[in-house]
Amino acid sequence: MVPGQVARWGAGAASGRATGGRAWLGGKGGAVPSAGGSGRGKAGGRVAAAAPEPEVPMKLGTPGAVQPGPPDGSCEQPGPLGPSQQNGAVPGEQGKQEKSVKRGNWGNQIEFVLTSVGYAVGLGNVWRFPYLCYRNGGGAFMFPYFIMLVFCGIPLFFMELSFGQFASQGCLGVWRVSPMFKGVGYGMMVVSTYIGIYYNVVICIAFYYFFVSMTRVLPWTYCSNPWNTPDCVGVLDGNLSSRAALNISQLLNTTQKRTSPSEEYWRRYVLNLSDDIGNLGEVRLPLLGCLGVSWVVVFLCLIKGVKSSGKVVYFTATFPYVVLTILFVRGITLEGAVTGIMYYLTPQWDKILNAKVWGDAASQIFYSLGCAWGGLITMASYNKFNNNCYRDSIIISITNCATSVYAGFVIFSILGFMANHLGVDVSKVADHGPGLAFVAYPEALTLLPISPLWSILFFFMLILLGLGTQFCLLETLVTAIVDEVGNEWIIRKKTFVTLGVAVAGFLLGVPLTTQAGIYWLLLMDNYAASFSLVVISCIMCVAIMYIYGHRNYFKDIEMMLGFPPPLFFQICWRFISPAIIFFILVFTVIQYRPISYNDYVYPTWAISIGFLMALSSVICIPIYAIYKVCRSEGDTLLERLKNATKASKDWGPALPEHRSGRYAPAFSPSTESHLEVQPLQPEKGQSEAAAASPIQGSNGSAHSQDSRL
């Protein structure tokens, strides 16, 4: 059967397949095709060779069973269900649709866009992007950042969305496109696991600040607390002027560093920071309790998969912008805010030659947009097949990066105010890393009227930003597990899979709530979610463009969207994006410097653990490739490689109604003749007998049964 015949028979058909000796015979034209139809059936890729049960040909050949076609001219036949349908089985296409419903779909397209925005716009936009700008020369960081966005970020974002949407599978199932590279999917799962573990720890710290803000005076407002040191200088202290002058004098004459009450609250009370990464100390019970709360919230929001999380994002993805705008308006009205914003925007061009700046720009794009995490593939897999993911990728990417820049204005306006107040340079007023969000912001909040209220709103915003990303991280792991197993039992028990992953994530996050937890958190952030993301993205580009074939993939996108990808994206996918990613990786390795946190330098054994974490996700790719080649058919290594990289038979759109063109089921001539002849043989005698007496058609015309068939 050629695809054109299937298309001509109409779109409302049932498929046929052989099950337990019973033949379900049908075609795109239903039980009996219209005049001129050949009567051939589509069998979902399989053809029934066994003879049909007696009642099936009788229903096809008995005059009373011939139903009039619908008035719209399609070939779908109404009437009573066949025996195979009556016993609970649903013919091919309907069965696929039922499976898709069981897997879950977005309620509407807005849910997908908001979820993707919530996934991309996360805590990194507040405490990672401004931190990278601050470390890499302010505005000089913008140039490599937007270069990476245009030539790597958006193209890879579009590639992952189209990849998952076309196959309607998670980060493992999509690699039916080239089974040897399924290790890329496992690498994405490992990366998402690492990020999900420490990301929720940051959310739990935000929960902690959220709870302690429910007081009349914020605990980090003044320097009169038991955990404060003599070096503490608060912006609201009564003797601020004299103490600030004294502190500036000390800065000029000694190496002593001014500390704010919010900084001491963060390091000496919340974290109770130990002196070494190996000295775990005690578990901070308040943080442990907040970690449990954050995992419970994530689980409850994902208890029904995308059906429940899709409703939550209406609030979690939009409310943070309200708070950011309030803080921005307050920040730019402060004295010295312009100085901080100029430090944010003025480029230090000498740093742009440092490969570390370009490496940070690339890793930030991957980190912020979520490329190579597997989340984009997973979220897009719940889309409708013909959704315009090209449009979505542009909207979401621009929204994400605009939010990063916007949050940077909020941060640096506050830093400029603090620097002006103390008479020091902007670079001396804040810590690196997540402490920026828990040091600079809390101190700024003490300047606002009714500061506890603003503190509650701000940290609630941080919680929502984090949860939006955490939802997708957890759903990525759960979807990959459920799709990989794929049986009815695990689909019904998906809630328990979600619970199991959440419990495992909580237990693995407990060490990060110890006194040395911040050291481990930054170690995971710098290694588990940096180098490996670059490698995974590069290999994914190569596998799709050069192993599966760029022409095949462009045709897939055209079949899905109705138009091929723009020429710019075709060039980026094939040449520019892989080349830039590769050279950035090389230069980053050459310019590598060991990680440090403030004045603390990580020991060699800790850095080795960091490299092992980065390697653990990348090593999945060659290990699975070797395994797949060994298990593939073939007498020579070359034959095994070809079979291992060739797309599997079930690669393509999930629903039969979308499997057209080269994905349409193919039949051999002998099978077609068998399907044509066998159902009609029992009818021949009856049709000859009935030829003498005309049959009244639905339109009032008389015709014989033979001519109808």
Automatic annotation (TrEMBL):
InterPro entries: Na/ntran_symport, Na/ntran_symport_glycine_GLY1, SNS_sf. Keywords: Amino-acid transport, Cell membrane, Disulfide bond, Membrane, Metal-binding, Neurotransmitter transport, Sodium, Symport, Transmembrane, Transmembrane helix, Transport. GO terms for cellular component: plasma membrane. Na(+) binds at residues 118, 120-121, 125, 368, 400, 465. Pfam families: SNF. Residues 7-22 have a biased composition (Low complexity). It catalyses: glycine(out) + chloride(out) + 2 Na(+)(out) = glycine(in) + chloride(in) + 2 Na(+)(in). It comes from the Eukaryota. Disulfide bonds join 223-232. It is found in: Cell membrane. The chain crosses the membrane at residues 142-163, 184-211, 318-345, 365-382, 394-419, 453-474, 495-521, 527-547, 567-590, 602-627. GO terms for molecular function: amino acid:sodium symporter activity; metal ion binding. Residues 695-709 have a biased composition (Polar residues). Its main location: membrane. Residues 23-44 have a biased composition (Gly residues). GO terms for biological process: amino acid import across plasma membrane; neurotransmitter transport. CDD domains: SLC6sbd_GlyT1. Residues 1-102, 652-709 are annotated as: Disordered. It is a multi-pass membrane protein. Belongs to the sodium:neurotransmitter symporter (SNF) (TC 2.A.22) family. SLC6A9 subfamily. This is Transporter.
